[in-house]
Design brief:
alpha/beta, 11 helices
Length: 292
């Protein structure tokens, strides 16, 4: 079985910096890559803050922070990832962007390097077939926020071989995560259940059944959810919610997956949730205020 020692994470956003965080903490050397130096700088600073927060809560030891940070190298040059044993792509949930990344990686990494995607909804088989090594391609869907969430969905494409699966699951386990295996169907398990629920909550708002606060309160107190569905949508990003609903709608050809028109309108307005300071709540003041 392939021995994984060096991991390349492509994409320094919310998911990418979280994956780099847990990989470095688990003892792996990490190359964190992004086209934006600003995102790399912000990602590295966030990793250090989150490690410090974990230490303050007693989840890790203080003397683990500096070694973990020392294992992370940030770079805007994809060529710097030539020595990696495992690539984890964590870019935007757009297939053309992901395909372009894998094309670049295939040109510079070793033939035995494993490629993986953190996609939350796209076909692993289709992404893998666009590379020169579909048998060494796998889906590793981490949950957000990565340092806190225990689950990783592992998805094998049609061509993924057993050695790749074993090597990838060994890495995930070393990161302290729990694995669930999902078949390669649109949105896998978690988002196949979660995202349509959020879309239905948006329909409930759209049809006037409840207010933003009323819907969230109902699901927190009536279903014991830690966050209301509209609050959670803002946390995930409304553009991501819409993208996954579109993939479900197209991939499964069922009208029950039709994105709510109100969700589409918010995305068109650029009100994507916390990352833009406005979504179903407005976050620009001291406390969030419903926008509808």
């Amino acid at each position: 079985m392939a021995q994984i020692k060096i991991i390349g994470v492509v994409g320094a956003g919310q998911m990418g910096n979280g994956i780099a965080h847990v990989a470095a903490l688990a003892g792996y050397d990490v190359f964190l890559n992004d086209i934006s130096q600003e995102k790399l700088d912000m990602g590295r600073a966030l990793i250090e803050r989150n490690l410090t927060r974990q230490a303050a809560r007693g989840l890790i030891k203080d003397d683990e922070i500096a070694p973990a940070m020392a294992r992370i190298v940030t770079t805007t040059a994809i060529a710097d990832l030539s020595s990696i044993d495992l690539a984890i792509e964590a870019a935007s949930e757009k297939e053309d962007i992901k395909r372009a990344i894998f094309k670049s990686l295939c040109a510079i990494v070793r033939p035995d390097t494993i490629l993986s995607s953190n996609t939350s909804s796209l076909s692993i088989t289709r992404l893998g077939s666009s590379t020169d090594r579909p048998e060494r391609f796998i889906g590793l869907h981490f949950m957000n926020p990565v340092p806190m969430m225990k689950l990783v969905e592992v998805i094998r494409g049609l061509a993924t071989n057993e050695e790749t699966y074993e090597a990838a699951t060994q890495v995930v386990t070393a990161m302290g995560k729990t694995i669930t295996n999902a078949e390669d169907f649109p949105a896998f398990i978690v988002n196949r259940v979660l995202i349509p629920m959020i879309n239905e909550a948006v329909y409930t708002l759209y049809e006037g059944v409840g207010t933003v606060e009323g819907i969230d309160k109902a699901m927190r107190l009536g279903a014991n959810h830690p966050m209301g569905p509209l609050e959670l949508a803002d946390f995930i990003g409304l553009d991501t919610i819409l993208s996954i609903m579109q993939i479900l709608n197209e991939g499964l050809a069922d009208t029950k997956y039709r994105p709510c028109p109100l969700l589409v309108k918010y995305v068109e307005a650029g009100w994507l949730g916390r990352k833009t300071d406005r979504g179903f709540y407005d976050y620009r003041g001291e406390t969030p205020v419903p926008t509808r």
